Amino acid sequence: MSNVAVLLPAYNEEVSIASMIILSSKYADEVIVIDDGSTDRTSEVSKRAGATVLRHKTNQGKGAALKTGFKYAEKYDVIVTLDADGQHNPSEIPDLVKPIEEGKADIVNGSRYINGNETNTPTYRRVGQTVLDTATNLASGIKLTDTQSGFRAFSSESFKHFNFDPDGFGIESDMLIEAAKNHLRIVEVEITVRYDVDTSTDNPVVQGFSVLMRVLELMRFNRPLYFYGISGAIILFFGILILLTINMTAYNNNIYLMSIGLFIVIMGIVLFISGIITDTMARYKK
Length: 286
Hints:
- By secondary structure, the chain is α/β, with parallel strands linked by helices.
- It folds into two domains: 4-221, Alpha-Beta Complex (Spore Coat Polysaccharide Biosynthesis Protein SpsA, Chain A); 224-285.
- 48% of the residues lie in helices and 13% in strands.
- The protein has nine helices and seven strands; from the N terminus they run E-H-E-H-E-H-E-H-E-H-E-H-E-H-H-H.
- Strands 3-2-1-4-6-5-7 form a seven-stranded mixed sheet, with helices on both faces.
- Helix 6 runs parallel beside helix 7.
- 40% of the residues are buried.
């Protein structure tokens, strides 16, 4: 049996944290709460429930909380991360730990969508999730069904390869991109999620946009052909569309509109070629 630690990054979760600790402790040798500058009784409640508490003086973000937790728990064979708001079911921890214990994975990603039968996700969340899944999969070169899951298990060796930059919510995508870069084995297992207990105070649109910007930044460095190539192809498409529209209307003799259309086409071609060149250089450096 592996030694298992559970990490619960928390910010103002005094209502739900105790039950998460008690339920998680059934499947872990130690439950570690990283109190990310909470202004309520999260730390006090966590200690009374039997958790080890690591506290940030100020709110630094989920990424910073996980960094603190990983550093503390590096002595364990397996580290499991869950959200502290009660969305995840701790009884599913063994399902995530099992592939690592069997030597089949370095990282196990809990997925709500692995069998395509998750129907409880609010529509606005699912749309945003699809965008982030697509961007993260393109940036990492792997294909996962739930790239923003906070319910994951890591082998003791896997997180040593990570070099996390974001302190906020971009950490989920960052982990996967770093894992792919280091050729770590990632598998997915099905999990269940409750949405009626979502206590997040963050604007989901703003949060999703910030994660997307982070993923695009990583894509630019790790997979430039996709970043520049896709951007160039989209711009080229619209440039050609503009030229065709001008040609079929009364504006076909307007030199200024034709110049704008040609400029957009050229810009698209330049971006596409830049992607090919940058990607070739990146592969050569590797």
